[in-house]
Structures are given as structure tokens and as C-alpha cells.
Hints:
Number of helices: 12
Strand content: under 5%
Largest sheet: none
Number of strands: 0
Order of helices and strands: HHHHHHHHHHHH
Radius of gyration: 19 Å
Low-confidence stretches: 294-299
Oligomer: single chain
Distance between the termini: 25 Å
Shape: globular
Amino acid sequence: MPFSRAGLLHLLVVYLVWSSTYLAFKIGLLNGFEPFWMGAARFIPAALLLLLYARWRGWQIHPSRQMLGKLALSGSLLWLGGTGLILVATQYVPSGYVALMIATTPIWAAALEGLLDRKPPSRLLVLGLLTGLLGILALNVPKLSTGTSTNLLAFLLLLISPLMWSSGTILTQRQIANLEPVVVSSYQQLFGGLGFLILSIALGEPWHTPTLLGWASNLYLIVFGSLIAYTSYILAVRLLPLSLVTTYAYVNPVIALLLGWLFLREPLGIWTWVGGALVLLGVGLVFRSRLQPAAQPTL
């Protein structure tokens, strides 16, 4: 089946912009931000700007109480469970490693969709996901050989994070369909940002004054990561199959690894290149599987 050109364009934005957010996370944390304080300082301003834009466009910005509940739950899964755990893990490990661990997102999404639909994925889709997973394992070889406590904590957090993100994405796709994408994006980020703020206060995070570079990285996350890329993500989720949309998690690590090497001198080795090649092959197989007509269920 042909894909929506607009959907593919929005997916390309997600591919390119979200690849760079891992670098921005690391720079912000290295320059004065604490994890949850950084999340609050990003998502609350981004949400308010999106709501102002939606109001200016004349869109409905007062969802029902039931819809607000769904937006709160999906926003918490996506941002507190997904990005929040990433921010904590990024304190201990390189940004490229974080990105490649989040590449398990399509596997979680496919598994959850299969459980919800009671429908097994196609063989080609399974092959694509397994190839991508093999690439992730290859990329992880250097880390697995040095199993320090902080590495293990980051590993566990980065296993849970994509499960939370996949759950929030599926909820968004299936339960939140009658609001403008910008409005959905704004409320989800608002609830996520408020959650970050509450956690930051509850945990007693020191609110240092970030450096100029720290604020610049957060501004980049607000404008490009939240205002532009996340809205594109919501649109892509509506216009394309979820298994296709979540392939961003395969492309992002490869670009993020290169950016980490270029700007932070994070090491690259033979396992990086082998794993990167397998990741891209997995993406191609997932794309190919979505082009095939769905098999008829057997009775």
C-alpha cells in the first residue's frame, strides 16, 4: 500500500531532529541542569507556546475531562516514563549509547500491538526487528564488557524507557484521534512537564544556574525537539503504520553516535560500524514488510 507523502516527510523530520536531541540532553546535563529540572524547563514552555499557537489558529483547546485523562496518561508514559528515564541514564553513559538502547522501541511497539490485536507480525517484520536488535547488541559489545553499577542502572532504565514510550504512542494512536495534533502535543508535554517539575521538587534537585551553553541546548530541545519534531511525530503516527513510524528508533542511534563522536569525542569502533549497518538493514526490512499486503488469518 502506498504511504502518505506528508507522513513520510514528518517521519523524516523525526529521523533528523530527534537524532540530535541525545547530544542536546548530554550537553545540558554537563552544563548545569539536573535531569528533571531540565525536563520541566523544556516541556512546560514548549507546551504553553503550542497552546498559544493553537488558540491563535482557532482550534479547540478545551478537551473533555475524559480526553484530558487520556492526554495526562499518554503524556506521562511518553515524557516521564520515556524521556525522564533517558535523562537520568544520560548522566552515566555516552549519548550515543543512550540512543542505541532506545532503538528497542519498535520491538516493544510490535509486541504490544500484537498482544492488543491478537495478530502475530509478518515474518519479514520479525526479521527486520531481529536484525535491528542484532545491530543493537553489536553496538553494545563494548559496554557489556565493562558492567559497572552505573552502566547496569543505565541499561535497566533504557530497557524500561522504550516500553513506556511505545505504550504512550499506542494510546495516542488509538484513543486520541479527534484533536488537532498540535493540541495533543501541547497537552501531553504540559502534563509531562508538570510531572518533571513535581519530581524535581520532591527529589530536592538543586536548581543550579545553567551555563549559556546549557540554556542553548535546552532552547534547541524546546524549539526543534518539542515544537517541531514532536508535532511531526504525532502527525506521522496518524498518517503511517506504527511499525513504520517507530523505525526512527533505529535511525536515530546511528546519527546520534556520529554526533556524539563529532562534538563530544565519544569513541567509535568496529562494533559501532557493524552495529550501525545492521540497524539500517533492519530499518529497510521493516519498511519492506509494511509494503506487503497483510496476510489473511487462518481459521
